[in-house]
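Sequence only, no structure available. Ideas?
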Amino acid sequence: MIDHFNLPVSDLKRSADFYEVTLAELGVPLLMRDRDAIGFGRNTWQFGIVQESIELIPMHVAFVAASREEVRKFYAAALQVGGSDNGSPGLRLKYEPSYYSAYVLDPDGHNIEAVCRCGSTAE
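Reply:
I predicted one. Tokens follow.
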């Protein structure tokens, strides 16, 4: 439904460092940079961060994880590079029986989630 999304950030380098490490755990590499924006994606720019000088309103972005292990790796990596815990990896039964996710706050306070709608606890 959405082709790409750009998230406003206050410090492009700090956010690039954060997202490059955390999104790598989901198999999403940094694809391109320009002066005020950085794009990530598997084949094309799907998610970007854009330097803004305005006051930022915290947003929520959820990234697809292929497995529960990817969710755990995403969460651990995010905490290692300056993210703050906002919900450790686990099932979120209030959403659906197989909804497994983790939440972190990025350096600007955006609520970033990795989610796997996997059925097996072995994943």
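The radius of gyration is 14 Å.
Hope that gets you unstuck.
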